[in-house]
Amino acid sequence: MVEFATTKVRVTGRVQGVGFRAWTEREARRLGLTGWVRNEPDGAVTAFLAGRPEAVATMLERLHRGPLGASVADVTMLPSDGEAIPSDFRVTR
C-alpha cells in the first residue's frame, strides 16, 4: 500500500510578481505531486499539495525558500479536509 499525504498552505511575503506560482508548479511536478497553486487578493499564495509524504515534505521545505526574487515570510498550514485531489498540478486563479 502506497502512503499518501495532502496539505494546504498559505505562503506570505514577497511571493507575487516573482514567478512563485510557475516555480511551484515546476517543483511540484518534479516531485510527482498533484494539486494547485494560486495568488490570493491579499498578496499571499495558497497551494494544495498531494502525493507521497516525503515528496510533500520536500515541497514544504522548498516553499519556505521560494524561487529567486521571492522573500518568504511565513508558510502556514491550512485545513484541507474534503479537498478534491486533482490528477495533475496546475496554476489556478
Automatic annotation (TrEMBL):
**Per the record's keyword annotation, is Hydrolase included, yes or no?**
yes
Gene3D superfamilies, sorted: 3.30.70.100
Recall the GO molecular function terms of this protein's record. Answer: acylphosphatase activity
The yes or no answer to whether the keyword Hydrolase is present is yes
Which top EC class is named for this enzyme in its record?
hydrolase
Q: Which keywords does UniProt give here?
A: Hydrolase
Quote the catalytic residue positions: 21, 39
**Domain Acylphosphatase-like residue range list:** 6-93
Q: Which InterPro entries match?
A: Acylphosphatase, Acylphosphatase-like_dom, Acylphosphatase-like_dom_sf, Acylphosphatase_CS
Catalytic reactions on record: an acyl phosphate + H2O = a carboxylate + phosphate + H(+)
* E.C. numbers: 3.6.1.7
What family classification does the UniProt entry report for this protein? Answer: Belongs to the acylphosphatase family.
Record protein name field: Acylphosphatase
Phylogenetic placement of the source organism: Bacteria, Pseudomonadati, Pseudomonadota, Alphaproteobacteria, Hyphomicrobiales
